[in-house]
What we know:
The structure holds 2 protein chains of 2 kinds.
Chain A: E1 2-5, E2 9-12, E3 17-21, H1 35-42, E4 50-56, E5 64-70, E6 76-81, H2 82-87
Antiparallel strand pairs in A: 1-2, 3-4, 4-5, 5-6
Chain B: E1 10-19, E2 22-28, H1 32-38, E3 45-46, E4 53-54, E5 67-70, E6 77-81, E7 91-95, H2 121-125, H3 132-144, E8 159-171, H4 175-186, E9 191-194, E10 210-211, E11 214-215, H5 216-230, E12 233-236, E13 239-245, E14 249-255, E15 269-281, E16 285-287, E17 300-302, H6 303-313, E18 320-325, H7 331-339, E19 343-349, E20 362-364, E21 367-372, E22 379-384, E23 387-392, E24 395-399, E25 402-404, E26 417-419, E27 424-426, E28 435-437, H8 447-465, E29 497-499, E30 504-505, H9 506-514, H10 520-527, H11 540-550, H12 555-558, H13 572-575, E31 588-589, H14 593-598, E32 603-606, E33 609-612, H15 623-636, E34 639-642, E35 647-652, H16 656-663, E36 675-682, E37 688-698, E38 701-706, H17 711-725, E39 732-735, E40 740-746, H18 750-755, E41 772-777, E42 780-785, E43 794-800, H19 804-817, E44 821-822, H20 825-834, H21 867-870, E45 881-888, E46 900-903, E47 915-923, E48 928-936, E49 945-950, E50 955-962, H22 972-975
Helix pairs in contact in B: 4-5, 4-8, 6-7, 9-10, 9-11, 15-20
Amino acid sequence: MRIKCPLCGDRDSREFTPMGHETYMNRPDDEGWSPAWDNYLHLRDNPAGITREMWYHGAGCTSWLRVERDTVTHDILRVELAADVKRGNS
Amino acid sequence: MRIEGKGRVDVSTPVKFSFDGQGYTGFKGDTLASALLASGVKLVGRSFKYHRPRGVLTAGSEEPNAMVEIGRGAAQVPNVRATVQEIYDGLDAHSQNRMGPLAWDLLSVNDLFPNFLSAGFYYKTFMWPRAFWEKLYEPVIRRAAGLGSLSGQHNPDHYEKAFAHCDILVIGSGPTGLMAALTAALGGADVILCEESNEFGGRLLSEDEEIDGQPGAEWVASMLDALRDTGRVRLMSRTTVTGAYDQGTYGALERVGLHVNGPAELPKECFWRINARQAVLAAGALERPLAFPMNDRPGIMMASAVRSYLHRYGVAAGRKVTLFTTNDDAHRTALDLMANGVEIAGVIDSRPGAKAQGDYPLYAGAEVITTKGRKALTEIIIRHNGSEQKIATDCLAMSGGWNPTLHMTCHMNSRPVWNEEIAGFVPADDAVPGLIPAGACKGTYSTAGCLAEGVEAAKKALSALGGKLPEVDIPQASDAVGASKPLWLVNGKGRAWLDFANDVTSKDIKLAAQEAFTSVEHMKRYTTQGMAPDQGKNSNIGALAILADATGRAIPETGTTTYRPPFVPTSIAALGAGAQGKGFAPERFTTSHDASIERGAPMITAGLWYRPSYFPRPGETTWRQSCDREVTMTRNAVGICDVSTLGKIDIQGPDAGAFLDFVYTNMFSTLKVGRVRYGLMLREDGHVMDDGTTARLGETHYVMTTTTAAAGEVMKHLDFVQQCLRPDLSVRFISVTEQWAQFSVVGPKSRDLLNGLLDAPIDNDSFPYMGCGEVSVMGVKGRLFRISFSGEHAYEIAVPSRYGDALYRQLVTQAETLGGGAYGMEALNVMRSEKGFITHSEIDGRVVPFDIGMDRMVSAKKMCVGKPATLREGLKETDRPQLVGLKPVGAVKQLTAGARLFSAGADATRVNVEGYTTSVGFSPSLGHFIGLGFLKDGPNRMGEVVKMVDHVRNVETTVEVCSPVFLDPEGEKLRG
C-alpha cells in the first residue's frame, strides 16, 4: 500500500503509522470530563466504506496527515496535511 | 531416457549431482526432475500420510510429489520441488519423509491401513485419554507424517529483498505475456516481465508448435530480441509473482542463487515488492489430473509434463507409454512421442466418440480402472466396451483438461466464475483493480487466441495509463483448442487420489460430505485437501467436483475455497531478508560506547540503545559487588554516567512556553531563563505518558528531555499536538538526541571535578539546584544543567557529540583521581530507587498522576493534554494502587520486581491482590533491599506490614510499607 504524502510524494505505507479516525483532531473544549470527552476518546464508528483517518509520516517528513480512504477497497482517495486542514486551508 | 537431438539442455556441458548419495550426470538446463527421469529414476519421494512411493507428476512449480531436501547441515532446505530445482555441479539432493532407505520406507506400513487413516482420523481417534496427546500421540504422529525436515540450526544463507517500480507488469512469458510485454513497451510503457522458469517462453518451449512459420522456441528468441531492443523491458527470469496486493503492489520471489554452486555471499533468493501502475496476468493454465483407482504410482504423469520433458529437456518419460485423456489436446502427447520413436501402447480416451489423430491404438469410451507396480508403474487395467483389458506400460500420461491459473485474480477477495464451455473457473471481471487477465489464465486456450489477447490486454493497460496505442501485428498461429468432456472420477476398487501431496482420496471427500462437512471450506479443513505445499493447484477443482456430486449440487453452486497468496511456497528467510541476527533491529551506540567496552562493561539494551550495565574492577566477581561499589563511590565521592540516550528535543518560538504548558501538566511559560523544571506529560486519556526535565535556555528557547524508552513516542505526540491540535501556536522543534553527548556528574565531589574542566569555575550561586546555562568546557561550548536523578548534588554536562568520547574519558579519569569513577545502569537504578524517583517501571501506561502522588502537579490554572480525563470518575479513588516504598521485615530479605502484595493475613490468591512491586534493588546505602510498588490506599498504610508473594520465582516474604523516598527526604544533598 502507498500513501501520497503532500510533502514527500508517493511513499510506502510502512513509513506511516495510523492513529485512527480524524475525530482526534477535534478536541472538545470542555474543561472537565464530559460526554463529549467520552465520545472523543472512546467512541468510534467502524465504517465499511469511506473514512478519514490520521496517519503519521514518521519515517519521512514527520507530518501528520488526514487520509481519506475506503476501508473496503483500500483505495486512498485524498491526503492532506493535518495542519492545513486544521487551519482551514485544505 | 534421453532422446538425442531433442530438448534445450546443453549436452556439451554435463553436470554432476547426487540424489540419495548416488551420483548422476545431467546437462546444463536440466531440472533435478528431468535429470532423474533421464537417468531412469522414477521413485523420488514418499507420500505424506501413507508413505506411498511417488514419482514426478508435473514439470512445474505445482509439483505435489517430487519434493526433496537440498544440502546438508545448517544449509539444508526441505520441500524443494525437483521440477523447479535446476541442477548444478555438486548439487546434493535427498529424498524426504521416509524412515530408512527410500525404496524400503518402514512407514509404508501405513499404506496397509488406509481405512484407519481416513479424513478426520486424528480428530476422532486421539481424543482420549487426554494426557496421552502431548506425551505419546503427537510425537508419534509428527514423526510419521509430514514433509521435509528442518536442520534446527540457524540458516547461514543470505537472502535479499528489493523494490521495483514499473508502468506495466507482465506476469508470465508464454505467447500471451510476450505479446503483452512487446505491445506495452512499444506503447512507451516501462515494463517488467516476470517468468517463473529459467527461460522465457512458457509452454511454447514445451510444445511442437509454429508461430509465423517459425518453431515456437525460435519465435520466442526473436521476441526477446525485440523486447530488448525497445530498451523499456526489464526481463526477470526465475521470478514467480507470488501475490497481488493493494494499489498495484505485487510480491515476487526471485531464485537468485539456488541454481548455482555460487559463493556464500550470493543471495539464495530475493523477495521483490513490485509497484505496477497496471499489470497483465498471463499465467497460463495447469493441466488437471484424473481421479482413477491407484492413480498415484511413479510413472503416472501429466500429459503436458510428458511433452515438456520431451521437447524442453529431450527426455522420454517412459519406453512404452499409455495415455488417459478426456480431451483432444492430450493426444498431442502420443503424436509427439511417436515422432521421436517412443512406443505408444495405447490411448485411453473417456469419450465414446473420440477419434485417433495418428497411428496408435485408441480405446474410445474407455477408462483406466486400476494400475499395478509397487515402486513404479508396470501395467494398467482398462475397462473398454464392458470388458477389462491389461496393458503393460511404464508411463501413463493423463489429462483431465485444463484449469486457468487465475489465482492472482482472487488475492483481493474476488471469486472465480464457472465457465461451462471450458468446464473450468475463469477470473471474474475487474477482480483486482489494474490487473488484466489474458490468454489461457482467462480460459483462452488456442495459441492464436493467446497472442491476440496479449496485445489486447496491453492496449487496455496502456489506455488506463493514458498512453498511445501502438500498431502491433498479431503473428499467425494455430487456433485449435480441441474438444473436451470432463471426467471427475472413475469408479472402481481402490483409492483414487486427488491431493497427492496430502494423500487425500475421493473417498475422503465423500466421507466429509457424509459427515456434514458439505461446505467446500469445511471439506478442505476436514480432509486437508489443498493444504499441502501445492495448495491444491492440481486437485482442488477435481475435489470440489466430487463434493458437488456427493452433495447433489452443481460445481458453481459448491464454489471454490479461497485463493490466498503466496502463489508458490515462499521461504520465510526471503520474506524476512535482512532481519536475521543483527539485522533484526538497529543498534544505537553512545559516544562513550568504546570507552565503556574498554573498561570491561557488559552492555545491555535500552530500547535500541546499548548502555553499560556496570564497570567491573579487579577482585569483583559478581555484578552486585560492582554495583554496590559504584553506588557507594558515587554517594561518597563522584560518579560519571552517560545519559545521552535520553530524548532531547530543542523547542523554539514565541509560543514555545504556551506549547509546553499545553503538553505538560505543570507550568513552563513561567519558568525563568536559566532554570530547569521537572515536567509530567499525560496522554489524552489522563494516564502518564512520560516525564523528564525541561530547561529554558532563552526567552523563546527550551530543551526538553524525555525518557530513553519513550523518546520516539513523545516526539510523535508533540508533532500531533502541534500539527493537529494547536497549529495556531508559533513554535518549532526538532530532536537533538544524536547531536548532544550528555553525561551526569554525580556526588559530593561533582562540582570540584567540573571546576577542573570548566574554563570558568561555577559555584552555588551561578549554578544553584535546577539551574542551567551555557559553559565552556576546555574550550568547547557546552551546556550545564544542575539536575539529579540520584538525590546527590549532581550535574549533567552536554557537549556536541563529536566531543563526547573525549569528554567522557576525561570525566572518568578525573573522577577516579577523586575516588570515584564510571557507574552503569545497575547503580543508576539503585540510586534513583533509593530516592524514590520513578521510571517506566512505575509509569507503565496504567497510572494516573494521582497514583504517583503527583495529582497536584496538574495545574488548575490552565488546560493541558489529558487534564479533563484525570477528572474521570474512579481515577482518584483511595483504593487505587498508589506508589509506596517497601522494605523487607520477614525472614527472607530479598525483594523481587513484579511480585504481588497482599494483606498480612490474606491468602495469596488472585482475588486478594492489593498491589505489586515495580522496582527493587539492594541499597548499599541502607544495607538492605528496597522496593517501589503500588498498593491500594498505600499512602495511608505507612508502617503496615504486608505480604509479598512472587508466584513465578517462588519468593515470599513480609514487607513494611514506607515512603518511596528512602534517602534524604529533605533534599539537603541536592542543594548542597
